[in-house]
């Protein structure tokens, strides 16, 4: 067998079996492919450091195969297997029947007895077949090649060939597509893609549109309402709750709810219980069990309660309610600032007190999001995760400014300062409204564009500030060397050069012909001083240079940065939008149904539920205290789970070490070290050559001396 085939089996096949826990089945003979598979498994067992992570190889051989080693019996086995829809991976170049199939699998129309005879003579030159055997084997090959969807040819020697584990996974997905288009039939292949950490294969081969995958997030977003319900209908039902009990909005019945619950249970094998969206299962169960629990109240009560819970429990309704109430909050804030903002003791008025209560409910919701989550972590970790979101930072700034503004507003001496702070706070609350655009497929990625452009502007200001300070200080020193007023120095050093970028050039100070000022001391108290005309020509040159750099170079640099940022985000707009949509759905799926200020009722309900839940858990712990003891700092995992953890750690360790080794090899220091080592080696080699050359010359001179001295 060729050396590359042994390497493929030793690395690819063993890696695939190790990461998934699959067994390798062979013919149990020490010949051909089975022999090298056994050697690869043996080498892995010797090199493995874990006793729990083992690659299992099972050999199964028929008695007829052992006694009668017929070369072409493999074709019969392949033919029987493809009839049972079993996928096969053909290693081109490995010899035997595999090379015959690799040559003919893509050209089944050319498979006739004469072509088959030619292939057999090339691949088996030492064997002799009768015409009857050729015809029989041709029929077998025709039967095999008729199932092309089950056959995958892997040619390692071909340029750009993929890894063996990748080819195996693609072969399995290819075979699955041949007989089914249902999503649940692809769960095994999806598990393999997750186990092998090959998201690219899952995206290209499984989630490629050929399989009719259900929109899981869409189903969660709409809850139990019909997906695609017009927003105007939702808004009408929100403003007039009685419309929920009409045909304005279509709801799913009990059967679709059961189907959704079964889908969630099918996805349990993919560890979806770790996802925040997995909590939907409990809500669906509640909706399914609600009619049964209300059975004694009659069908009318069941209908009213079920529809009410279905409508207000959907995340889309929660989102719509928060948006509508947030607009109402901004309208109230605007009214208070512009119309009804009275100083003490006349104020605060009734609308202003309502605004204070509204913000208080917003503070309670932010506290719930930050500290009272379902994650079993300490408070510092929860707060760190909360602050990691930029929108939460915006909420914290808005609430802080509101508290400062209200505090100043209550003091007569700081009333105007409070108005100023609250006006700035209104701008922050209004900018927070941008978050609702994340649900839109076109506007959502634009939020990422604006965010990244703001970072670009932040770095751009460093370049601009250097030129502003350099030009401003220089012109101030040349035009007004004797003016020491700080307010005028600040205005001329920073503010005036910034305005000159946009074309506001003070010609009355720069152009000598337009200078018109008085040197009278009474007029210099609140007016600018007269400019010095000694270096007027130099100021003009500096102005031309400053405008050239800022208006041409730096502005074009900023435009180029913006263009690059837009292209990067727009090229991955779909990916950014999916992440934004997922985070938005998770946020409003976990939020209470009521929006501020009515969210206070939901908070009271959650607090009472938490108290009752803790009391129930305390009773259960008291009754079964001896049976529910938990060991801290150490846990004994079941053997299957322990094996999975060890396998995952081993694979991740190898991946990490390989990345570190590659990074070390590619580092500049390592490249320089290798180059220096090679240079030293070449220098030593050249030095050795010089020494040898000297010795040879010395020997030649010694050999020529006797000849010259001989008579």
UniProtKB/TrEMBL annotation:
Primary site of residence: membrane
GO-annotated cellular components: membrane
Transmembrane segments: 311-335, 394-415, 458-479, 534-554
Compartments reported by the entry: Membrane
One Pfam match: Ion_trans
InterPro entries for the chain: Ion_trans_dom, TRPM, TRPM_SLOG
Gene Ontology BP annotations: calcium ion transmembrane transport
Name listed for the protein in its UniProt record: TRPM5 isoform 5
